[in-house]
Amino acid sequence: MHVWERQSGESEQAHAAFLLYRDMPKGERSVARVGQECGKNPSLLERWSAAWQWVQRAAAWDEEQLRVADAATLEAIRATNKAIHEACVMSRNKAVAALKNKNYEEMSIQELLLVFDTVNKHDWIALGVADGRHGPNGGKGKGQSAQPPQFFKIYEAVDVSKI
């Protein structure tokens, strides 16, 4: 049982009053305001608040709401990063195919390489392996190359005489 749920021995009226208190904006909570909203005697509400630990229970509720919001935000970030990664893979594949086939009709080699570099940068960020200013690991080393292995394969396939 969560502390913001009705507690054993807590009356329905006391719990309903607590819910009014709990659901008020954090900086605006007060027993007096609960009294205004529900028409109960302020001294009764003060006793209920103390006996049923309204302040602590409301704080626990606030923490739970932050946790839920953080989880939803994280899931949205993951979904967005997945979509970015998929778009990057598709764009990179098109750039790779154009470079390998020496198809420079729509874009020059320099433009294709720029697309490839840009797509890789955004993909690294979406995958969480770069910070946008540096390569994997944010340029902190750890023995990894600043470019992924496929990056070198692409440059090897480019007809450098066209650059």
Write the SSE topology.
Blueprint: H1 12-22, H2 31-38, H3 42-51, H4 54-100, H5 109-127, H6 149-157
How does this structure look, described?
The structure is a single chain. The chain is an all-alpha fold. About 65% of the residues lie in helices and about 0% in strands. It is rod-shaped.
Number of strands: 0
- Fraction of helical residues: 55-70%
| Principal-axes shape call | rod-shaped
* Unreliable parts: 137-149, 158-163
Gyration radius over CA: 29 Å
Give the count of structural domains: 2
How would a textbook summarize the main sheet? none
Which assembly state applies to the chains in this document?
single chain
Strand content: under 5%
Give a summary of the structure in a few sentences.
The protein has 2 domains: 12-52; 74-162. The protein is 64% helix and 0% strand.
Fill in the keyword field for this structure.
163 residues, mainly alpha, 2 domains, 6 helices, 64% helix, rod-shaped, disordered C terminus
